[in-house]
Amino acid sequence: MVQLRIRAVIAACALIAGCVAQPTGPTVNVMPAPNKPFAVFEQDQAACRQYADQQVAGGAEQANEREVGTAAIGTVLGAGIGAAVGGGRGAAVGAGTGAIAGTTIGAAPAQRAQWTLQQRYDMAYEQCMYAKGNQVPGFQPAMPPPPPPPPVR
Predict the structure, then answer these.
(1) Per residue in 21-45, pLDDT tens?
(2) What's the number of domains the chain is made of?
(3) Single pTM value for the model
(4) In a domain, 145, yes or no
(5) DSSP string of 32-91?
(6) In a domain, 23, yes or no
(7) In 3-state terms, what secondary structure has residue 132?
(8) Does some domain include residue 32?
(9) In this structure, is residue 151 part of a structural domain?
(10) For the segment 56-67, what is each residue's pLDDT rounded down to a tens digit?
(11) pLDDT of residue 16
């Protein structure tokens, strides 16, 4: 019975904490290169979104596994302390308290993981779009070197 409660508490805390999700798209603005047809720009976007997805693949799952592990450790520690203090009933209360504490402790790293994952996605997307000649904020398009000065007479 206590184990069932412990599992329920872990599951509830994992849901409450909010999971890290795979980015759904870029959070940066990229504009088409001058005179580039919009249909070509759309093809660039699709290819670069796919490239960015590949660059962050598995990152959300790894962050979520770490968060669930933190909640589980908190639950086990809380159950151990509760059992030592109050017996079987104390174990259930301790498990619940430990799960909540473990989830709370794991929430901040989950937020950082989400931000980092989005940042990595955006960088890959920007690199790809820049490589395809589109206008990326903060980056100047590659310019050919200026012509040499006229000869001196």
Answers:
(1) 777 799 999 999 999 999 999 999 9
(2) 1
(3) 0.57
(4) no
(5) PPTT--HHHHHHHHHHHHHHHHHHHTTHHHHHHHHHHHHHHHHHHHHHHHHHHHHHHHHH
(6) no
(7) coil
(8) no
(9) no
(10) 887 666 665 666
(11) 47
